[in-house]
């Protein structure tokens, strides 16, 4: 049996590939390399450059490699970009996911794991947010993912398909063994930005808003180590293969840190100061987004191993240094 990982050359997907290989799985990656990097894919996996909506390609791979499960990461993930170009997001995330599900169903793939997001909830819910909280996405990005969840639910009702949708909170960090990490240029994620600033890749960074209704006035997020996140997918795969039913589960630790606390952690772990400037709020940011992760813990038997902000930051910093070396070696 082989697992198809779409978007396996990207940040989370490339970690997933290592997680599966480490567990002895065979892996085929399909990635259009629009954001990912071929060098990020573990050499033991087969990388095919292509589109998840290419039915001939995907159907052929499923048959050729006896693929029994799809883990679908490929998609667009930048919230403001989705506001500026919603139709691109519905095309890339929703329409292509529809085609991929159809191809999987037609080729008798019974297990589907989907990369969803906390952005399906919207910002005004009760914290920590449970999976049955009201779904009211604030962006086309969130809606594009929520529609994919709905398609999966309906397809699983109608066909011999079971799925797990995992709603990610704030994913950060890098492979503790230094094999891959967050490599996208111009990334906007807080921990990545702070690490880049600490290492002098940016002259300064900004804190987007210091007047929120939180303990120190800055936004609170539930940062989850990418290694724990991909382990949740592997457990979901095991569970589906063992006949588990379809579920949707949050992936976060269940507690949050403020922007100031994250920056303090980067200073502490890096062992040096860097230029941080207080700025205005960033449009669309909720004051606090924290997961209730009981369901993932109970249903998947998920026991996070890197639930420690300093550890997340240490791995992110180590990868940022390694990326500097890799990029200068590549010229
Ligand atoms: N922030 C700063 N300065 C920066 C970058 C971020 O102050 O340079 C702040 C943001 O304003 C926010 C917090 O740090 O308060 C976290 O911001 P990120 O951009 O790292 O992450 P978001 O919480 O905005 O977004 C994440 C995912 C999205 C997903 C969303 C769902 O990246 O894909 O969570 O809640 F949609």
UniProtKB/TrEMBL annotation:
Cofactors demanded by this protein: NAD(+)
EC number(s) recorded for this UniProt protein: 5.1.3.2
Pfam families: Epimerase
One Gene Ontology term of the molecular function aspect: UDP-glucose 4-epimerase activity
Entries under CDD domains matching the protein: UDP_G4E_1_SDR_e
Keyword vocabulary terms for this entry: Carbohydrate metabolism, Isomerase, NAD
Recorded metabolic or biological pathway in which this protein acts: Carbohydrate metabolism; galactose metabolism
Residue runs in coiled coils: none
Domain NAD-dependent epimerase/dehydratase, first and last residues per copy: 3-252
Catalytic activity line of the entry: UDP-alpha-D-glucose = UDP-alpha-D-galactose
Domain of life according to the entry: Bacteria
Family membership noted in the UniProt record: Belongs to the NAD(P)-dependent epimerase/dehydratase family.
PANTHER family (alphabetical): UDP-ARABINOSE 4-EPIMERASE 1, UDP-GLUCOSE 4-EPIMERASE
UniProt subunit comment: Homodimer.
UniProt name for this protein: UDP-glucose 4-epimerase
Highest classification ranks of the organism: Bacteria, Pseudomonadati, Pseudomonadota, Alphaproteobacteria, Hyphomicrobiales
């Amino acid at each position: 049996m082989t697992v198809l990982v779409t978007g396996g050359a990207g940040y989370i997907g490339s970690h997933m590939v290592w997680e599966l290989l480490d567990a002895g799985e065979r892996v085929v990656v399909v990635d259009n390399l629009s954001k990912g990097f071929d060098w990020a894919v573990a050499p033991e996996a087969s990388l095919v450059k292509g589109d998840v909506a290419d039915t001939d390609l995907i159907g052929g791979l499923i048959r050729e490699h006896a693929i029994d499960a799809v883990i679908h990461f490929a998609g667009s993930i930048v919230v403001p970009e989705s506001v500026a170009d919603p139709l691109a997001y519905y095309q890339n995330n929703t329409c292509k996911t529809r085609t991929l599900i159809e191809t999987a169903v037609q080729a008798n793939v019974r297990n589907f794991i989907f990369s969803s997001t906390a952005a399906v909830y919207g910002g005004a819910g009760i914290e920590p947010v449970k999976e049955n909280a009201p779904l009211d996405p604030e962006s086309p990005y969130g809606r594009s993912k929520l529609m994919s969840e709905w398609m999966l639910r309906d397809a699983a009702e109608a066909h011999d398909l079971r799925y797990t949708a995992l709603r990610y909170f704030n994913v950060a960090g890098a492979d503790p063994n230094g094999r891959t990490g967050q490599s996208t240029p111009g990334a906007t994620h807080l921990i990545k930005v702070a690490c880049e600033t600490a290492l002098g890749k940016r002259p300064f960074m900004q804190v987007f808003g210091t007047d929120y209704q939180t303990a120190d006035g800055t936004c609170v997020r539930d940062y989850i180590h990418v290694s724990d996140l991909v382990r949740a997918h592997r457990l979901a795969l095991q569970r589906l293969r063992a006949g588990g039913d379809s579920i949707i589960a949050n992936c976060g630790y269940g507690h949050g840190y403020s922007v100031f606390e994250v920056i303090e952690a980067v200073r502490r772990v890096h062992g040096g100061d860097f230029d941080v400037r207080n700025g205005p709020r960033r449009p669309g940011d909720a004051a606090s987004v924290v997961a209730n992760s009981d369901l993932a813990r109970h249903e998947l038997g998920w026991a996070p191993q890197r639930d420690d902000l300093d550890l997340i930051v240490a791995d992110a910093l180590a990868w940022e240094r390694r990326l500097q070396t890799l990029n200068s070696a590549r010229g």
